[in-house]
Amino acid sequence: MTLPHLYSGKVRDIYDAGGGLLMMVASDRISAFDVVFAEPVPDKGRVLTAMTAFWSDELADLAPTHLVTADPARFPARFPVGAGDWAEVAGRSMLVRRAEMLPIECIVRGYLAGSAWKEYQRLGTMHGTRLPSGLRESEKLPEPVFTPSTKATEGHDENISFEQAAETVGASVAARARQVCLDAYERASSLALERGIVIADTKFELGLVEGELTICDEILTPDSSRFWPVDAWKPGATPPSFDKQPVRDFAEATGWDKNPPAPALPAEVVAATRERYVDAYERLSGLELANWFGPEAPPP
Asked: Which CATH class, in words, describes the domain spanning 100-245?
């Protein structure tokens, strides 16, 4: 790969594609408790990319996304796609527009779970806003709520109020971000329910492209969202999720102190995790991952 490398995160590697474009490559790396494990989860990067492309199409009338194409045949000629590196890029790469990213995480919650549930148990609030008493874990909220957080460069993100978000990005941008995220969540959660999945909450990354607020990065994937099977959801319990839960459960059971290095993942944990990611994509999209761009051969 000859494009200039700009950044590598826990999952993605980002390259400068020139002309105001970036190449985002989703690896099969998996992390839990902010630590990356040595064992990759096969097809995870392809699931994240395929799902982002699917939702980008589904939400196109609500807000633009930064995705230009995920089809390797349409990548720039200077991005080498040949026999030697096809497996590295096929199905896991997106050509996207550069964006000036908002310095907040844009989270929408439709159900009381995760850090919001913990706060509610302690204070009766969610991101500082009072909620009705007597709510149970995993209970559906009266209506979806935009609940922003900080983007921590070190440590963990911190939940903030909408007013604090407005102070950070400006009132008009914060209001537009809230509307975009709520509209996108409601569209996606309605489709997901029809296909047997509850989207409990999700995190959107928003940025400005030529001054227009745009949905960026991954969209409604198992890494950015909490997906539950409808038939396993009920208030007062924690449903199984279509994500890295097998990794978390295994890591917790080992007594690991959550500092690097992570314990080695057994093959059965890797396989169970892959199955959840693939199942989430195929249920939500109605498509088969096998038909998404694969590593077998470059396009003709």
From this structure: alpha beta
Q: Is 78 exposed, middle or buried (0-12, 13-18, 19+ CB in 10 A)?
A: exposed
Q: Write the single-letter amino acid at 201.
A: D
Which CATH fold would you assign to the domain 1-98? Phosphorylase Kinase; domain 1 (3.30.200)
Ordered by start, the domain boundaries in the chain are 1-98, 100-245
DSSP assignment letter at 95: E
pTM: 0.93
Please tell me the distance from the alpha carbon of residue 281 to that of residue 242, in angstroms, as a whole number: 9
Select from 136, 128, 189, 180 the least CA-distant residue to 159: 128
Measured CA to CA, the distance from residue 26 to residue 51 in angstroms comes to: 12
- In a structure prediction context, what are the per-residue pLDDT tens digits for the chain, which is 300 residues long? 578 889 999 999 999 999 999 999 999 999 998 899 999 999 999 999 999 999 999 999 999 999 999 988 888 766 655 444 666 678 999 999 999 999 999 999 999 998 899 999 999 999 888 999 999 999 999 999 999 999 876 656 788 899 999 999 999 999 999 999 999 999 999 999 999 999 999 999 999 999 999 999 999 999 999 999 999 999 999 999 999 989 999 999 999 999 999 999 999 999 999 999 999 999 999 999 999 987 655 554
